[in-house]
Amino acid sequence: MDDLAEDLELLPATRRALRHRIAVAQSEGRAPSVVAAVLRGGEVVWEGSRTSVEGHGPDGDVQYRIGSITKTFTAVLVMRLRDEGLLSLADPLEKHLPGTGAGRVTIAQLLAHTGGLAAETPGEWWERTPGGQRPELADVLGEEPFRLEPGSRHHYSNPGYTLLGSLVEAVRGRSWEEALRTEVLEPLGLERTSGLPQAPHAGGWAVHPWADVMMPEPLEDLGLMAAAGRLWSTTRDLARFAEFLLRGDERVLCTESVREMRTAAAPPEPGLDELGYGLGMQLMLVGARRLVGHSGSLPGFVAGLWLSEADDVAAVVLANCTSGLPASTVAADLVGIVADAEPRFPRPWRPFLESDQVPLELCGPWYWGTSAQVVRLRADGALELGPVGATGRTARFRAEPDGTWTGLSGYYAGETLRAVRREDGSVSHLDLASFVFTREPYDADAPVPGGVDPQGWRGIG
User: Fold this and answer.
1) Angle made by CA atoms 181, 185, 188, in degrees to the nearest 5
2) How many CB atoms lie within 10 A of CB 427?
3) Measured between alpha carbons, how far is residue 108 from residues 207, 225, 242 in Å?
4) Which one of 53, 70, 333, 419 has the fewest CB atoms closer than 10 angstroms to its CB?
5) Distance, CA of 249 to CA of 279 (rounded, Å)
6) pLDDT of the chain along its 461 residues, tens only?
7) Rounded to 5 degrees, what angle do the CA atoms 272, 276, 277 make?
8) Are the C-beta atoms of 38 and 338 separated by less than 8 Å?
9) Which of 107, 83, 74, 110 is nearest to 277 (CA)?
10) Helix, strand, coil shares of the chain as percentages rounded to 5?
11) Which residues of 13-97 form beta strands (DSSP E)?
12) Closest by alpha carbon to 155, among 190, 202, 120, 199?
C-alpha cells in the first residue's frame, strides 16, 4: 500500500478523538442528537453520532435541516449561469430580474453579502412563520430594502439570497428547486438532499435553557425564502458536496469556478473573527489553518460544513437543537483533529517529462528594484513567483497559448506576466503589471522605470 492510500485510513487514536469531540459536543450542548462525518482525500473516512435515545443513533443517511448551507447551493446555481454566459456577476440585478426595488445591487454583491440589503425580512421572523405570509418579493424586501450603500461593506442578508433564488428562476424559466435538483443534486449524486424532509429524518427540538426539557419546533415551508435556507440533507450527501467544493465537477462547475467561490470577495463584518466571505462561502481562520465552508441554523437545527484545502480534509456536523451546540466550531475541530494528528502525505515529487517544453530561461532569481525574487516552474506547468526572504508578494501563474502567464492568486491575480525579449531572442526582463523584473538589481541594460543612475552602485565617499 502506498503512502497516499494508507493516508486515507485513520488511526484508532484519531477515531477515538473524533468520537470524544462529538460526545462532548452532544453532552455540553444538550442536543437530542448529533451526527458527523469526516472526508479526506475524497473519501468519507469517519462517521459518528451521539443521541439522547439509548441504543439508537442517527447515521449518515438521516436527514437534518441545514439552514444557510443552502446558500452555497444557490451560489453554485448562479455561478453556472455565469459560466454559461447567461449573465455577468457585475450585472445589476435589474438587468435580469426587474421591478424588485433593489435592482441597482449587482449579482456579485448579492453573492458576497455586500449589497447593503437588510439582514432579515420585515414583519414576523421568517424562519418560524409560513412562507405564505411573504408571497411576493416586495413582502421579503419591504418598502426600504437597503440598510447600507451597496458595495460599502459586508452585511449578511437572507433576503439577498431570496433575490438570487428568484434570479435563477427568471433566467432558467423554472423553479429554484427544480433547477437545483437537475443541475446540482442529480449530477453529484446527492439523493438525500431535498426541499422537504424525506424519511428517515430528525425532528427539530428546542431545549429549555435552564432545565433539561424540550419541545418540538414548528416545521414551516419557507416559500420564497427557500433559496436562503430551506434544504434538508445528510452528512454523507454534504461530504460529497464538500468534495465538489474542493475539486469541482465538470458536470456542475469547473475547478476554477469553485476556487473562485472559495476566494474572499468581501472583508469580514467588523468585530467578527472571520477572513471574510467568498461567493456563497464563509472563510474562517482557526489558528494558522484556513477553513472554507458555511454554517447553518433554523429553529430546531444547527449545521456546519468546513473544509481545509491545504489538508484535503472536510467535516460535516448536524444536530437537531435550536441552540447550544456550536456545529460550525465542532466541524472545524474535527478537521483540526484529523489534520494535526495525521498530517497529509505530500505527493511524490516528479520531474517534467522529457517531451515537455521547459522555459528554464524564466527560472531562478530576478529583482524588482532591490527586492530579490525567485521564479520556479513546477511540473504541473504552473509558474511561481515569490520573495527570496520570508516576506513579500507571492503568486502562481498559468501559461497562456500566446506565451504570456496569467496570475491566479494574490496581488497579481488576473495580471499578465510577459517575458520581454531582445533582438537575439534572449530574455531582457519580465514585465508584470508595469513592474520590471531584471536579472540584476536595477540592471542598466533593462528599461527600468525612471532610469538608472549612470554612476552605478557606489559606497560612501
Assistant:
1) 150
2) 14
3) 38, 19, 22
4) 53
5) 17
6) 344 444 578 999 999 999 999 999 999 999 999 999 999 999 999 999 999 987 778 999 999 999 999 999 999 999 999 999 999 999 999 999 999 999 999 999 999 999 999 999 999 999 999 999 999 999 999 999 999 999 999 999 999 999 999 999 999 999 999 999 999 999 999 999 999 999 999 999 999 999 999 999 999 999 999 999 999 999 999 999 999 999 999 999 999 999 999 999 987 766 665 678 999 999 999 999 999 999 999 999 999 999 999 999 999 999 999 999 999 999 999 999 999 999 988 888 888 876 667 788 999 999 999 999 999 998 888 899 999 987 788 999 999 999 999 998 888 989 999 999 999 999 999 999 999 999 999 999 999 999 999 988 989 87
7) 125
8) yes
9) 110
10) 30, 25, 45
11) 33-40, 43-51, 64-65
12) 120
Which of 359, 362, 283 lies closest to 112, judged by CA?
Answer: 283
Q: What is the pTM of this model?
A: 0.89
Q: How far apart are CA 412 and CA 433, in angstroms?
A: 8
Q: What is the DSSP letter of 194?
A: B
For residue 147, give the amino acid letter. R
Nearest CA among 119, 88, 116 for reference residue 104: 116
Q: Residue 279 and residue 284: Cα distance in Å, rounded?
A: 14
The three cell numbers of residue 281 are 462561502
CB 228 within 8 A of CB 67: no
Please give the DSSP secondary-structure letter assigned to residue 423.
Answer: T
- The x, y and z cell numbers of residue 58, run together, are 442517527
Helices and strands, counts by H and E, the chain = 12, 19
Q: Which amino acid is at 393?
A: R
Which amino acid does the sequence have at 35? Answer: V
Beta bridge partners of 405: 399, 417
